[in-house]
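Cross-check.
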Amino acid sequence: MAGQVEVDAKSNETAAFQPLLGALDLTGVTVTFDAMHTVRANLDWLVTTRNAHYVAVVKANQPLLRARLARLPWTDIPTTEITRDHGHGRDETRTLKVATVGFLDFPHAAQAVRIIRWRRAKGRRPSRETVYLITDHPTETASPALLAAYARRHWHVENKIHYVRDVSFGEDASTLRTGNIPTNIATLRSVVINRLRRAGYRFIPPGRRDHTTPTTALDLHGFP
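Predicted model, tokenized:
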């Protein structure tokens, strides 16, 4: 983790975007982030002030932009990348298409990406999700294969960090709000996650089940 900032209870994560990244040298770096941060000010700041690039997820918080992306002639655009993965008890197939754009009325957008994710989890019906992304990278600096790699790396972070914190530890459902308690608890969660990964656990739930007693918990952290 390169850094973190605390989000004020009366604010949200979007307001923390620039303060968090402001201390980093982003020259030439391609930044990926959740759809919550896909706002004009952030994208323009990355490109014009920090000399960086972006690959931004577009969801319902930008309804007009998402509608424009959905209306692109995707049926006429060939599939350029297909990837398959297995993890968290599910099989996932992703198909990617890329279109050059110059009319989205969003800062510096040069290419649009559509990814269709098919998921099949044991005991559940298959599901399909369509994800749109935009990037300031032109085709000369970001091929479809590279854009697919950026998307995979972003979801890897989602699965390895956010998914674990939200699902395995129930962080989003936490009602702790007093003083420094949320920050302290978040720090403890991070310590446990990192120790389990260093101990060789690929998935966090089995690691937690193996360390439910005081003795095993202390052993995990190296206490005699």
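Residues 181-220 form one domain. The first strand starts at residue 30 and ends at 33. Passed to J.P. for a second look.
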